[in-house]
Amino acid sequence: MSEPSDTYSAAAEVGQVRQRRSRLSRMWIGLKKAPPSAMFGMTIIVIYAVFAIFAHWLSPYGQADSSFGAYMPWGDGHLLGTDQIGRDIYSRLIYGAQNTIGIALVTTILSFAIGGSLGLIAAIMRGWVDTILSRLIDVLMAIPGLIFALMLLSIFGSSTWGLILIIAVLDSTRVFRLTRAVSMNVVVMDYVEAARLRGEGLGWVMRREILPNILPPMVAEFGLRFSFVFLTIAALSFLGVGIQPPTADWGSMVRENASLIQFAKYDLKGAITPLLPAGAIALLTVAVNFVVDWFLQKTSGLKE
User: Fold this and answer.
1) How far is residue 63's CA from residue 70's CA, in Å, rounded to a whole number?
2) 118-174: per-residue pLDDT in tens?
3) C-alpha span between 252 and 268 (Å, rounded)
4) Do residues 133 and 145 lie in contact, with contact meaning Cβ atoms separated by under 8 Å?
5) Which CATH architecture has domain 39-300?
6) What values do phi and psi take at 78, rounded to 5?
7) What does the domain layout of the chain look like in residue ranges?
8) Is the pTM of this model over 0.85?
């Protein structure tokens, strides 16, 4: 005969499997009911993710391969031609997805780790901890973000990790404000007080009691923050202080090929070349905003 404990553990495993299947089915039903704008946004995000992840296999040439002629026309071995020093535009567009999106994603995650943690600490501790952190954030937010980033990058250099750290710290101020605001309504709940009276640590209370209850607005904010960080990195690269060559980046690609626009009446396809990375930036930004709008509407409980 089997032991009762074995029977209970087997029943518990079966119950967990059924719960997971139920959650997946509900998620699939929710995705099927998504509006066309959200479906469009998710499709674009998936396509961009595929190109970013498999850039090494999808691009015909290396991102820094400059062994071709400068400003070669579309076709003839180069789908979108070459740039001013003979690099394949199509390959650099694909690698640009990997570099620009990857750096923006890492920066957004880091900004949420910094701003979210400090916001939760300020909401839980309150008192002088909340006051000091809030005033420090107010000082940082009083300085225009792009100008501050330009100044810091000029001082410390434009390395990739320096770019990530500077933008993450500056962007974490917005995350702090939102996290603190939504957490203030949760920390006063009875179950949070009960957890603290039980002697649970600060990290446990943040992770198990507060964070699950503020997750929907934080997930929506993550999408918006990613869009802003993505645009900031592209703008800094366009100005020459962001992602540095020979690394492919959509912002720097716009700057490097901008001179082709003036030759539109002689070579229309070539004149479109600098608009391709600009259009890629705009399309991803719109797609992320479509998905965020749908997620906010779904989690807020509002109906059309």
Assistant:
1) 15
2) 988 888 888 888 889 889 888 888 888 778 888 888 887 778 888 889 899 988 998
3) 21
4) no
5) Orthogonal Bundle (1.10)
6) -135, 105
7) 39-300
8) no
